[in-house]
Amino acid sequence: MTRSLHLVDVFTDRPCSGNQLAVVTGAKGLSARRMQAFAREMNFAETAFVMDDRPSGGGWPVRIFTPAEEVPFAGHPTLGTAHVIRHALLGGRVDRVTLALPIGLTPVFVERDAKRELYWMRQRFPTFGGRLSRKPVAAALGLSPADLNGHPIEEVSTGLPFLVVPLRSRRALDRVRTERGAVARLLDGLEAKGVIAFASGASRPGHQLSARVFVDELGVPEDAATGSANGCLAAWLVQHRFLDDDAIDLKVEQGVAMGRPSSLHLRAMRTSRGIEIRIGGGVVDIARGTVTAARFT
User: What CATH number labels 2-122+282-295?
Assistant: First the structure.
């Protein structure tokens, strides 16, 4: 039995930038052990598996694996998998694809302009968790406490929790260096397994913030573009009125330090129901082939 393999770059409009994603379609019958083995073989931040050739229960069943373990939700696999389903399985005829992820049904919408298509997902209403003091956070990131600003260092989740760390400058962001043991000790007692550090400004025009994301606990020392973490960042920006507003519409630059510049569109606003969050970005096709079941060992 053969299964299709699609390679795409997400949160970019040009090949060989953004965040790499492998998507396996027709994955019905594959065990979690085999999918984990293949994700480890690919060694991308995530590999996604479309578990059936048609939707059921309102969405396409999808499972997502990092090189280390399965995750219930992740941003760039959601957008990239929706792109693959839309074009490879549905012939590009629809502008909405709903994924059935472990966290629940997750719709993805397509927004077009004259030059491109952007894929958008609405994330769950955020929850806010524990806060940490500057000194241990700075030490875990290889910085001094003075490199962190006075805003809260806080755990936020929109489906996958991250610790949000605001820095004073892009220079401080560039100097971040993590060590797995130090970050693991920092996050001990929190639900978060990753850190998103950010600062105002960016190296490319049209971007308002820069971010770096570290998820050592899931086998991703640094990530090139992280929709789940930026969803947490969007919620944090509105919650703390970082931009003196209850609504944001901006672009975040990520992946520059890795040589894979990425652009993430963040829209969020405070409503009577909570903070509504949408994360968007482009998707570029890179390659397509097949993988035989016998090679999932």
Answer: 3.10.310.10
**To which residue do tokens 């931040």 refer?**
45
The catalytically annotated residue of 41, 46, 191, 217 is 46
Pair of tokens at residue 183:
């970050």
Percentage of the chain surpassing pLDDT 90? 88
**Secondary structure string (H, E, C) spanning the chain:** CEEEEEEEEECCCCCCCCEEEEEEECCCCCCHHHHHHHHHHHCCCEEEEECCCCCECCEEEEEEECCCCEECCCHHHHHHHHHHHHHHHCCCCCCEEEEEECCEEEEEEEEECCCCEEEEEEECCCEEEEEECHHHHHHHCCCCHHHECCCCEEEEECCCCEEEEEECCHHHHHHCCCCHHHHHHHHCCCCCCEEEEEEECCCCCCCCEEEEEEEHHHCEEEECCCHHHHHHHHHHHHHCCCCCCCEEEEEEEECHHHCCCEEEEEEEEEECCEEEEEEEECEEEEEEEEEEHHHCC
Nearest partner of 96 among 54, 59, 47, judged by Cα: 59
Please indicate whether residue 46 is annotated as part of the active site. Answer: yes
Residues 6+ apart with CB under 8 A from 241: none
CATH pick for 127-280 out of 3.90.220.20, 3.40.50.720, 3.10.310.10, 2.60.40.10: 3.10.310.10
Q: How far is CA 97 from CA 58, 152, 261, in A?
A: 10, 36, 26
Residue 164 tokens read as 């949000």
Quick: pLDDT tens for 113-161: 767 899 999 999 999 999 999 999 999 999 999 999 989 999 999 999 9
pLDDT at 131: 96
Instruction: Please state, in angstroms and rounded to a whole number, the distance separating the CA atoms of residues 9 and 286.
Output: 7
pLDDT in tens, 216-233: 888 899 999 999 999 999
